[in-house]
Amino acid sequence: MSERANLPPVYLDYQATTPCDPRVVQAMLPWFTEKFGNPSSATHAYGREAEAAVERARAQLAALIGAEPREIVFTSGATEANNLAVKGAAHFHRAFGKDHIVTLASEHKCVLESCLALEREGFRVTFLPVERNGLVDLARLEAALDERSLLVSVMAAHNEIGVLQPMAEIGKLCRARAILFHTDAAQAVGKIPIDVNQWGVDLMSISGHKIYGPKGIGALYVRRRPRARIAPLFDGGGQERGLRSGTLPTPLCVGLGEAAKIAQDGLAEEAARLLSLRNRFLAGIRARLPDAVVNGDLERRLPGNLNFSFAGVPAPDLMAACPGLALSSGSACTAASIEPSYVLRALGLSDALAAASIRIGLGRFTTAEEVDYSVETMAQAVRRLVPPMTSATARAT
Amino acid sequence: MSVRTAYLDWNATAPVLPEVAEAMAEALALCGNPSSVHRWGRAARQAVEAARAEVAALAGVSPDDVIFTSGGSEANHLALRGIDAPKFVSAIEHDSVLAAAPEATRIPVQTDGLVDLAALEAMLEDGALVSLMHANNETGVIQPVAAAARLVHARGGLLHSDAVQSAGKLPLDRRALGADLMTLSAHKIGGPQGVGALIAAPDLALQPLITGGGQERGRRAGTENVAGIVGFGVAARLARARLGQAAGVAALRDEAEAHMLAAVPARIFGVGAPRLANTLCIAMPGVAAATQVMALDLAGVMVSAGAACSSGKVRRSHVLAAMGAGDDADCAIRVSLGWSTTAAEIDRLVEAWAALYARSRVNAA
Predict the structure, then answer these.
(1) Is A48 in the same domain as A177?
(2) What is residue B215's three-state secondary structure?
(3) Of A260, A328, A332, B38, which one has the greatest count of Cβ atoms within 10 A?
């Protein structure tokens, strides 16, 4: 282990953000300086060249999810895309007597906060509980739908526990009732194969910086047939077919397009490699710490994600004891707060176990050596920190 | 010396400065979510906060007043939609302001492009939000923001000023301007597209437009555009350093104006009012703006017919219409200069424009 002493910490937080792939950075750089036009400046060559680059990127991103290029609306990120989808659907369909939204209690904060904002405007929101494995019960979801439901929003791959929801089944339930189906796929895109038609989604949020692209860019997929109708979040210049005004950031669009292309080219191999690293991680931890609890379903799960609870070892203590590892206790958005993850409590975990949860995110630049080092470091720290009686107590319950 | 192309559309967007591109390339190589508590997260957070201080310095405010957004359009929406008050917006505001508050009462402007302060005073209600841009994007006319702010504050209201076009071209001092809220954009000052800011004091009640992870003190959710924000910070620092150099740009603009007027019986908009040193809005009577920008484009000269935002379509400018321009509004082009504009580029513009006028006279005859 001493050979890592002068190296930066092992990055195990790929669900919070990913490093921008050097190929992505290279693709972006010319669009900052020599090719700097405003893509809306159709009156001259600099503008048209920028517009062509944006359209190439749009096609690359569409190809990754089986969509048409004109179904892609660029946004400033997945948070904006989620706000646009949820608030935009609600505001558009209110005029048609629809006022009800169904989502899960374990969704990302930005979906939950958007729903809460809509509740204050008079919309009804059902926050469905999930099963202990993190998955939604389809019968319960179906029972929650009513005549005035306008939207179902379910995260494709979970940001903390990595579980993959049954998208195609949810899509069928929604389509049969002409209810819009939105998914926050920020963690799923580029990691697992996605076909918007096979899933039957109408709206899908995408993030640049979760797929080795830049921060500050994302997209919302908006289905054209049958058409998903939403109201814009902001208005003005009329860019993105009126759904999202504002000057398009050409270099960021190009970066997202390139990131999508790289992800698509190596998707199957990379998923298999990450799954094998994850299995190595899990086997290593289980061999050393038989009491470790894995949160969330292990079968229906992102290849690069693990989420452990070590009973009696609060996550902040474990992170402090592992300065050589870049870890997180859950969503980065709320990482600074030390309250236990609302997601894990939604899974039925006690506050103590939820407060003892650690998220492991493996990614494109993770190596087997890093996994082995991380397992050993974490196991030693847990053994040092675990109170003598806790492991026996935890086993007994 | 002759040049092949002349980029004279700086009010649409400006090239990213080399120092900015360098800083961004470095920041893109940083991996870290500024909200993460580990070392990489903290490094990203530090980069964001250093940039916040630079942007604050450009605007003459404290770093706590800076809310990073995805650009000027979003910042304008956050200001106009985030405050619950009767709204008044000048008739020449950017489309993003007009669209953010379609219900707002429009404040008329005079024929010189300056807002009609007497009309504002007569129509103003107590506790209103008034939006008056610092400098207009099409004509460059600098608005009497401080005087408007005094009227608004006397009635217990708030003033928002879209300073996207004036930042880096005029000294910005929020207190002197009297603005409670201010909009900035990075890509007009040599920073990247996709980042901007709303300036608003932390204790100002502002409803967020984008909700979620609680970033930007709960006023704007979403993982920060770290590299973009870093680029904005460097661009803001360089813009402050460049403020003393407006004279060179003004001389070139005045030269363009003089030569274009000598060649064509043209009409210049906003000529009687204080204007940004880099902007020239000029009409060639009888020749449609679309024809002019196409002819100039073929000659390698890049200008625009009004704002760049309207999905490429050339339509009558609401700004010139509000100034009572009549049919001349359909014949107006916007020429806008920047820090690297050369005399040779101006020559190319004047030459191509004069040639177009000569051709149009032949065709007409």
Answers:
(1) yes
(2) coil
(3) A260
Helices and strands, counts by H and E, chain A: 14, 12
Cβ neighbours of residue A156 under 8 Å, at least 6 residues apart? A164, A165, A167, A183, A184, A185, A187, A188, A194, A199, A204
Answer whether residue A24 shows pLDDT above 90: yes
Given the candidates 3.40.1550.10, 3.30.980.10, 3.40.640.10, 3.40.50.300, the CATH classification of the domain at B18-242 is 3.40.640.10
On whether both A200 and A329 belong to a single domain, the answer is no
CA distance B311 to chain A (A): 6
- Pick the last residue of a domain from A236, A265, A294: A265
The DSSP bridge partners found for residue B197 are B68, B184
CATH architecture label of B6-14+244-364: Alpha-Beta Complex (3.90)
Residue A78: its chain B contacts at CB < 8 A? Answer: 222
Q: Is A168 helix (H, G, I), strand (E, B) or coil?
A: helix
| Nearest residue to A288 via CA among A365, A220, A386 | A386
On chain A, the residues whose CB falls within 8 A of the CB of B184 are: none
Domain holding A93, by residue range, is: 22-265
SS3 B253: helix
Q: Domain check: are A290 and A360 in the same one?
A: yes
Residue in B97, B223, B294 nearest the CB of A77: B223
Residues of B designated as active site: 309
Tell me how far CA of residue A54 lies from CA of A27, B209, B279, B347, in angstroms.
12, 26, 28, 32
| Residue A363, domain CATH | 3.90.1150.10
Q: Say what the pLDDT of residue B163 is.
A: 98
Nearest-neighbour CA in chain B from A139: distance (Å): 28
Same domain, yes or no, for A30 and A9? no
B297 near B82, Cβ under 8 Å?
Answer: no
pLDDT, tens only, A61-105: 999 999 999 999 999 999 999 999 999 999 999 999 999 999 999
List B332's β-bridge partners, or say none.
Answer: B283
Asked if residues A173 and A138 have their Cβ atoms less than 8 Å apart, the reply is yes
Residue A243 C-beta-side C-alpha neighbours within 13 Å: 27
> What sign does the CA torsion over B215, B221, B222, B227 have?
negative
Q: Domain with A68 in it: what CATH number?
A: 3.40.640.10
Domain stop point among A232, A248, A265 = A265
Burial of A43: CB neighbours in 10 Å, binned 0-12, 13-18, 19+: buried
Give the other-Cβ count within 10 Å of B151's Cβ: 18
Provide the pLDDT confidence category of residue B155 given band limits of 50, 70 and 90: very high
d(CA A387, CA A352): 13
Q: Max CA-CA distance within chain B?
A: 74
> Is the C-alpha dihedral spanning B230, B234, B237, B240 positive or negative?
negative
Q: Where in chain B is the domain with CATH 3.40.640.10?
A: 18-242
